[in-house]
Specification:
The chain has about 90 residues and is an alpha+beta fold. The chain has one domain (about 10-90). Helix content is about 25%, strand content about 30%. The longest helix has 10 residues, at about 70-80.
Length: about 90
Amino acid sequence: MSGGAAQGNFADIAELYQDGPDPSGRIPAGLVLIYDWGCTIWSLVDFRGPAGEMWCSHEGECWPQGVDLAEWLTGTLAGTLAVETLLESQPTS
């Protein structure tokens, strides 16, 4: 929400990295968790390429969000990128 309180739980992110990059083994190498939306919904930046493609992780699935880091930051700060939008892009099995 634009102008609202921060939603990210940064203590959770720090705690996850205490045991290494991904103790669960579910996140591909090169992806770094940068935002915890709550309810185990995470945004990750892909450092494997120069564009900084953004990924979403939820319920053990990890998929591209279709935006790069600059677009993600712009949308998040403007309040136009919502967690519901991320979940709509989740692949179905």
